[in-house]
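Let us walk through a complete example step by step. Step one is to write down the protein sequence. Step two is to encode the small molecule, flavin-adenine dinucleotide, as a SMILES string so that its atoms and bonds are unambiguous. Step three, shown after the inputs, is the structure prediction itself.
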Amino acid sequence: MTQQPRIAIIGAGPGGLTLARTLHLAGMAVTVFEREAHALARPQGGTLDLHVESGQLALTRAGLGEAFLRIARYEDQGSRLYDKHGTLLFADDDVTGIDRPEVDRTALRTILLESLPAQLVRWNHELREMRLGEDGTSELVFAQGTAGPFDLVVGADGAWSRIRPLVSPYLPQYSGITFIEFGIDEVDHRHPAIAALVGRGKIGVEADGKGLIVQRNGNGHLRGYAVFRVPVAWAEQNFDVASPVAARARLLAEFDGWAPEILALIHASNEQMAVRSIHALPVGHQWVHRRGVTLLGDAAHLMSPFGGEGVNAAMLDGSELARQLVACANWDEAVRRYEAEMFVRVVAPARDAAEAVATELSHVGPALTLQHLMEHARQHAA
Ligand SMILES: Cc1cc2nc3c(=O)[nH]c(=O)nc-3n(C[C@H](O)[C@H](O)[C@H](O)COP(=O)(O)OP(=O)(O)OC[C@H]3O[C@@H](n4cnc5c(N)ncnc54)[C@H](O)[C@@H]3O)c2cc1C
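Step three: the predicted structure of the complex.
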């Protein structure tokens, strides 16, 4: 079985594109199908810190180490915690020696896309169905028609993967935590007091079983999340994010009594709000190998964002799957090896993320978060 497999990747997220780029670099043919109409069809979300042993390693192997250094914001790794009165409980503003630089998602997607031939990614292709035959080859069904046959289809299509049901009956489960996402534009120029409050990195504010997390993105933009422990339908019932004025008023009511300098974050928010209910797959999620199909990233091991590992794990998956496919003459065996290693590799970060989301907004208020931050700072100093 030395012939190269015909490979399709569903999803041009960080995981799928890392796989595509690494295979392309090794001279292997691949096609990516993405439902979005083009690269900038949707804001790609906030900032991500890429870790040396995973996200950064994947980019280096993909020949994108220098491109990464151009988009990495080493200066934005600071961390602060306030209480609702605006009292600073913790600050780690000294980022020297920390090697988890922030990158904006859009910038990350751009360097990956620019490293691929334009025709390799088929935009505006939302997968409807994958028809997997007895022999392991498959046909993909899109609104435009079908594509295939493919020998290997990689589901890199995120939390609500259309590919996952072919190998696993599990659906992501709601964690109990919901974010209302908001943004603040041109913070240094238009809101200097907020810029000073946030500093270079991210802040948390926690009290009364609620929280705010605000992180600095590139170009003077801040992305904020109001964090609630609520039933899954609560946000849809209480927030009309399509009416930002009403949604902002509702947010202000939720944080009534908090210090004016904290509420200023909500007052300054722009018109782009979104509800993000945080879901996860069970820790240790795995499946029995099935020839012709596999998963990576959130499709394989969706975890809460509190561990800050999701994108790093997705990119390392892409890199590792490519490494196995390039190294192993028997591509089905390569997929088996990738799966066996990945199932083990992601258990620890998934467990940490599950614990982090379970203890978020704990009954002891910011005390637990403070403890975690101090522990991190101690580890960094050691
Ligand atoms: C609010 C929030 C904050 C987060 N913060 C962090 C963080 O700070 N650090 C971190 O490491 N992780 C964070 N994460 C997690 C991180 O976003 C994911 O782990 C990461 O994006 C997973 O990458 P992926 O390539 O597997 O999937 P995705 O990024 O979800 O990409 C999937 C792609 O597949 C496409 N797609 C989906 N369905 C189809 C279909 N049927 N047909 C074709 N295309 C399809 C989508 O359009 C998308 O482009 C956060 C997540 C959330 C929700």
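Step four is interpretation. The longest helix spans residues 310-327.
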